[in-house]
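The methods section describes the discrete structure representation at length, but only in general terms. The central task, working out the structure tokens from the amino acid sequence alone, is never made concrete. Nothing conveys this as quickly as seeing an actual entry. For illustration, here is how one protein appears when written out as sequence plus structure tokens:
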Amino acid sequence: MEYFTLWNGIRMPALGFGTWTLRGQEGREAIRTALEVGYRLLDTARMYENEEAVGQAVKDSGLPRQEIFLTTKLWQPSNSYQKAREDIDRSLRALGTDYVDLLLLHEPYPESAEMYRAMEEACRAGKARAIGVSNFNEKEYDALVQQCEIRPAVNQMESHVYYPRLALQRAMAARGTRMQSWAPFTEGRRDVFHQPVLLEIGRAHRKSAAQVALRYLIQNGIAVIPKSAHRERMEENIAVFDFTLSGEELAHIGALEGPASLFGWP
């Protein structure tokens, strides 16, 4: 596993496991399998309605809490300072832990500044080791930074070979904020797994197109959180740290970039 060091010194796995849509017993089993495979970053959110499943899977795994990097997120229903304070504690209870490693604001909201203030308070109290945002473009990010006291450690964004957002990644990095991709495979909007350029480069390294797509983002300084409910795909996704893309290969993949989001984000 490779790690990225956040501005406050915390080491975050470069590759984690996304849990969106994983719920109930089936979800718990998939998350526990991911931990068995070797994943140590689990990404959840109040919006996903699966914090309890994630927490139970962590407990069932038998792994020490400090070995697992837990991320969760506040969203629109927590749209005030007081609601955010209450929902941070609610998330901790659901996860069965007294702290998360990363607490994010799920999207830009009119109440972002006061919600983030509650997150800063949680960080100072030890309830979150790091805090950040998700789906904030550069303008929205700058507006928040002007009002906050603790700089966001992470901005979790749509990022994939068709829309990697490398300029935004560089802008975030210059401000001390790490980008993390929540859609490294486009969630089915484009067929990454059979993309000819990725397949050709993958053959040279004895890797799949999916592995090349993940490696491209990681080598560009972008953390990734792919999701799968299948063990064989989990094992494939995590096996991306034993090869390196050349400058020429990075440029060929970079040529796949399109002009706009595949999800309609502004």
In short: The mean pLDDT is 96.
